[in-house]
Design a protein that fits this description.
- Helix content is 72%, strand content 3%.
- It has 15 helices and 2 strands.
- By secondary structure, it is mostly helical.
- The mean pLDDT is 85.
- A hairpin with a 2-residue loop joins strand 1 and strand 2.
- The chain has one domain (67-330): ABC transporter involved in vitamin B12 uptake, BtuC.
Length: 350
Amino acid sequence: MAQVLVDREEKIDSARSMRQYLRHSRWPLVALGLLLLIFIWRVFFGSNQPLVDIVSVIILTLSFATPITLGALSGTFSERSGVVNIGIEGMMLTGAFFGALVGALTGQVWLGLILAPISGMAIALIHAVLSIYFRVDQIISGTVINIFAFGLTAYLYSLIFTSSRRNADAGILPSLKFNIDAAPFTLGLVSVLAIALIFVGHYILFYTTWGLRTRAVGENPKAADTAGVNVFKVRYINVLISGFLAGLGGTYFSLQVVGYFKEGMTVGSGFIALAAMIFGKWTPLGAWGAALLFGFCQAMDSALQSWYGQIEWLHTFTQALPYVVTIIVLTGLVGRSRPPAAVGVPYSKQ
């Protein structure tokens, strides 16, 4: 019996040592980086005729990264103020639905773009009230938001469009068009807004009084309260900002890509955005860098389709890359990220 216990402890110590090695050693990352560089060189520069056009991949990367960028920025504002926002996926789905709904019913896609972020804020307000006022566990509250949003949008879509056979076409937002080496390229309006909002968000968080108060509340709400900062007000507003950004991110799917709503069309982008936020260490620019990495994985899948043709297993592999990268990020192999000290902790005024 004693020997069995000793063997078990040795196995546990061995597994723990391996996890520590993978977490702290840079060699796995170096090897992965070298393989990635070799692959990129082969694809873009390895022959007289590159497999894909690098400019096309850049444009695709910026486009595919759009919902992840806005979702990560959404999570950054919420969690910097101390409120965990697992409900980004649900807020994005709500924005996608109501943006398409308004666009389809009015024929004005611009109204859809305006009202989609507002619908995201409405869902975010529910999360804020549950998390801040009622002090519900924020993970549970966010999960409820996701389930509620999926059920609500599916029901309303069936009620308004499927049962009445009403036209669900909402229209497509205009794109920014430009030429590079006489080749035309386009970048959607929501993608352009996402890039601009990253820099606006960075400025607000690190160069304004509001940003200082937000970070103070996320790190030490009691000290901020003592200094005269209204902790509840700061958290409410930041969660609403989070909902606004997530709702805007939803319009990427319904108003920029396809022009209509489809059930579950956000396909987990809100959860990938959370990984990008963690990867980016709760900073807008860092989160954008992580979002670009995920977007690049999707862009390579799209760009290489003409190369690998009908090789189904390779297509499946490249499609899975964003989710594989998400797992790598969340297991901590890219370095430990320290969240705001008070994130997820309800505050009650003494």
